[in-house]
C-alpha cells in the first residue's frame, strides 16, 4: 500500500495520520482517518470500483468533485459517491455492480419538522469567489449564509501547490494556492454576520423561493433575499474509444489525489490538454514524484501560459502540439494510449501515430459553468448574481476578484447609500485578470560588461502577473508600461536579494553574475 501514498513532498507537509480499518468487497483494508472512500481505495491499489449497469464498463474516479456518478459504491448498504463520502472505522464498502438497489423496508420512518432558516444572502460555493464575496458582505455586516459541499473552505484552491499569478495586491500573486485558501478562510472568520455550513449541498431553488440544502445528511430549507451562485464548474468528458476505462482522471481528480490526499495513483502519466490546468497538473505530478511522459495539445501551441510550458520542457516533459488522443487501450484499466498528429481540421495523420504504453491519463478538456442554480433562482424570482467559474471560466485570481465585486454589489443593493460604489478601476482590473495570454516578445538586452548582479527574466509572454515588481525592495523590476499585463523588465541596480527569484510563479527568473562579481559575494 505504501507505494501508492506520498511519503515525501517538496511543498506539502505529510501528516502523521491515524490509520483505520474498513472492508471492500469483503477484504480488510486500511485508510487514513478522515479521507474519502475513493482515495482510500486508490491508496490500496484499487482503481475499479464497480461496473456500469448498461454495458458493464469499469467504473472508477473521474471528477472527485461530486459532479458525476462514476465513482459510486455501496457503503453500509447505501449507494454513495465515494469521492464525497468519508471512510469510517469498519465501514463495509462494496462495488456497485449494475443499478444499486434501495435498502429493504424496515421500521416506519418518523419525520421531524424541517428546520427553516432565513438570511439576507445565500452564497452557494466556498471556493475563491464565494469566500471573497462573503468577506465583502461581512465587512458591511450583511446577514450571510455561505454553504459548501466539502468539509473545508477553499474549493479548488486546496488543490493548488503552485504560486499564483495575477495581482499581488488583489489576488495574492506569488503565494501558493492552498495557502491562499487558508488565508481567505481565516479572514472570513473575522466577520460574525457570515455563517458557514460545510458538508452542505444545495439541491434545488424552489418556486416558493426556498432553497433545499442537505447539511450533514439532514435536509433544511433556507429562505434568502438574494443568492450568489459561486458553485464553480464541472469538467467536460472527451469522447474517444476507450474513454470508459478506469484510470482516466479529470485534472481536478488527479490534483485532489496528489495534493489534497497525498495519494500517488500512478508512476507514469500522460496529460491531454495544454491549457493552464493541464500544464499545472503536469507540474503537480512532477512534485509528487510521478514521471510525466508527455502532454498532447490539439492546437499548434499550448493555450496556457508560456512560462508553464517552458517549465515542463526544462524538466524534460515532451509537449506534443497539434496532437490529440485517438484511443485508450486496455481491458478494464488503461494499459496504453494512442496519440496522433492532427491537421488544421483536427483530422489524424495516420503516419504519425504513437502508442505509449502503461500510462494512465489525466485530462483537461474544458469546463462547463454550474449555471443551474442561477436559472432556478431566476425562475423563482429571487435576485441572483454569479461569480467565479459559475459566471465565466477563468483563473482563480480572476474568481477572487470578481467575487469581491459581486459581494460589494450585493451589499450595495441591500444597504443602499451606506455602501460605497464599486470603483471603475475594479472592473478594469477584473478584465485584465481574466485576459488570455498576450504577445510573446524577446529577451531584454543585457550588458554583459557590467560588473554587477542582475535578474534575467525568462517571462516572455504578456500575462496578468506582477509579484516580482511588488516584492523588489529597490524597485529594480518594473513592467514595460506600468500595467499588470505588460512584461517585467530590469531597470535599476540590483542588490542580489533574491526575492524576485523566490516569488516568481513561473520559475522564470535567474541571475546574471559576472565572474568578478561572484568573487565579491559572500
Explained architecture:
- By secondary structure, this protein is of the alpha/beta class.
- The protein has three domains: 2-99 and 237-363, 2Fe-2S iron-sulphur cluster binding domain, sarcosine oxidase, alpha subunit, N-terminal domain (Ubiquitin-like (UB roll)), CATH 3.10.20; 115-233 and 369-432, 3-Layer(bba) Sandwich (FAD/NAD(P)-binding domain); 453-520, Alpha-Beta Plaits (2-Layer Sandwich).
- The chain contains 13 helices and 28 strands.
- The strands form seven sheets. Strands 1, 2, 3, 4, 5, 6 and 7 form a seven-stranded mixed β-sheet that branches.
- Helix 7 (306-314) links the parallel strand 17 and strand 18.
- Helix 2 (128-139) packs parallel to helix 4 (177-188), helix 2 (128-139) packs parallel to helix 9 (396-415) and helix 6 (276-287) packs parallel to helix 7 (306-314).
- The mean pLDDT is 90.
Give the topology, please.
Blueprint: E1 19-24, E2 27-32, H1 37-43, E3 50-51, E4 58-59, E5 72-75, E6 78-81, E7 92-97, E8 115-124, H2 128-139, E9 144-147, H3 168-171, H4 177-188, E10 194-197, E11 200-205, E12 211-215, E13 218-229, E14 233-235, E15 248-250, H5 251-260, E16 268-272, H6 276-287, E17 291-297, H7 306-314, E18 319-321, E19 323-329, E20 336-341, E21 354-357, E22 361-363, E23 367-369, H8 372-380, E24 384-386, H9 396-415, H10 424-433, E25 453-457, H11 467-471, E26 477-479, E27 488-490, H12 499-503, E28 509-513, H13 515-520
Parallel strand pairs: 1-7, 3-7, 8-9, 8-13, 9-10, 13-24, 15-22, 16-17, 16-22, 17-18
Antiparallel strand pairs: 1-2, 3-4, 5-6, 5-7, 11-12, 12-13, 14-23, 19-20, 20-21, 25-28, 26-27
Amino acid at each position: 500500500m505504501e507505494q501508492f501514498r506520498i511519503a515525501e513532498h517538496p511543498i506539502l507537509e505529510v501528516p502523521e495520520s491515524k490509520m483505520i480499518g474498513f472492508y471492500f468487497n469483503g477484504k480488510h483494508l486500511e485508510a487514513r482517518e478522515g479521507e474519502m472512500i475513493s482515495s482510500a481505495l486508490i491508496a490500496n491499489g484499487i482503481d475499479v470500483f464497480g461496473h456500469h449497469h448498461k454495458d458493464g464498463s469499469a467504473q472508477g474516479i473521474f471528477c472527485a468533485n461530486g459532479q458525476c456518478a462514476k465513482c459510486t459504491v455501496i457503503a453500509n448498504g447505501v449507494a454513495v459517491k465515494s469521492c464525497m463520502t468519508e471512510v469510517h472505522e469498519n465501514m463495509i464498502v462494496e462495488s456497485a455492480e449494475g443499478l444499486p438497489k434501495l435498502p429493504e423496508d424496515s421500521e416506519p420512518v418518523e419525520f421531524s419538522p424541517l428546520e427553516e432558516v432565513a438570511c439576507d444572502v445565500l452564497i452557494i460555493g466556498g471556493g475563491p469567489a464565494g469566500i471573497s464575496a462573503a468577506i465583502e458582505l461581512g465587512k458591511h455586516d450583511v446577514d450571510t449564509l455561505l454553504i459548501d459541499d466539502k468539509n473545508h473552505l477553499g474549493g479548488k484552491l486546496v488543490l493548488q501547490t503552485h504560486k499564483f499569478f495575477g495581482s499581488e495586491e488583489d489576488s495574492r500573486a506569488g503565494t501558493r494556492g492552498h495557502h491562499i485558501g487558508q488565508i481567505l478562510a481565516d479572514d472570513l472568520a473575522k466577520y460574525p454576520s457570515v455563517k458557514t455550513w460545510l458538508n452542505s449541498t444545495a439541491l434545488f431553488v424552489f418556486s416558493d423561493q426556498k432553497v433545499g440544502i442537505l447539511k450533514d445528511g439532514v435536509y433544511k430549507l433556507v429562505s434568502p433575499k438574494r443568492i450568489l451562485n459561486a458553485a464553480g464548474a464541472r469538467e467536460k468528458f472527451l469522447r474517444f474509444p476507450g474513454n470508459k476505462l478506469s484510470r482516466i482522471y479529470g485534472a481536478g481528480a488527479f490534483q485532489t489525489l496528489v495534493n489534497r490526499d497525498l495519494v500517488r495513483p500512478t508512476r507514469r502519466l500522460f496529460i491531454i490538454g495544454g491549457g493552464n490546468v493541464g500544464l499545472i497538473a503536469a507540474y503537480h505530478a512532477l512534485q509528487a514524484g510521478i514521471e510525466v511522459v508527455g502532454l498532447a495539445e490539439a492546437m499548434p501551441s499550448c493555450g496556457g501560459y508560456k512560462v508553464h510550458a517552458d517549465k515542463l520542457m526544462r524538466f524534460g516533459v515532451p509537449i506534443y502540439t497539434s496532437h490529440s488522443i485517438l484511443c485508450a487501450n486496455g481491458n478494464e484499466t488503461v494499459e496504453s494510449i494512442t496519440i496522433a498528429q492532427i491537421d488544421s481540421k483536427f483530422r489524424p495523420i495516420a503516419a504519425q501515430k504513437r502508442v505509449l504504453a502503461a500510462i494512465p491519463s489525466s485530462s483537461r478538456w474544458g469546463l462547463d459553468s454550474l449555471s443551474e442554480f442561477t436559472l432556478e433562482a431566476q425562475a423563482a424570482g429571487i435576485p441572483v448574481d454569479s461569480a467565479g467559474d459559475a459566471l465565466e471560466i477563468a483563473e482563480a485570481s480572476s474568481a477572487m476578484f470578481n467575487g469581491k465585486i459581486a459581494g460589494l454589489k450585493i451589499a450595495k443593493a441591500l444597504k443602499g447609500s451606506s455602501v460605497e460604489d464599486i470603483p471603475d478601476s475594479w472592473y478594469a482590473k477584473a478584465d485584465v485578470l481574466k485576459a488570455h495570454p498576450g504577445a510573446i516578445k524577446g529577451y531584454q538586452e543585457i550588458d554583459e560588461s557590467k560588473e554587477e548582479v542582475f535578474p534575467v527574466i525568462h517571462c516572455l509572454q504578456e500575462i496578468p502577473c506582477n509579484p516580482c515588481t511588488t516584492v523588489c525592495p529597490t524597485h529594480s523590476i518594473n513592467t514595460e508600461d506600468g500595467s499588470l499585463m505588460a512584461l517585467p523588465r530590469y531597470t535599476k541596480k540590483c542588490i542580489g536579494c533574491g526575492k524576485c527569484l523566490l516569488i516568481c510563479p513561473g520559475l522564470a527568473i535567474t541571475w546574471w553574475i559576472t565572474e568578478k562579481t561572484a568573487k565579491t559575494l559572500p
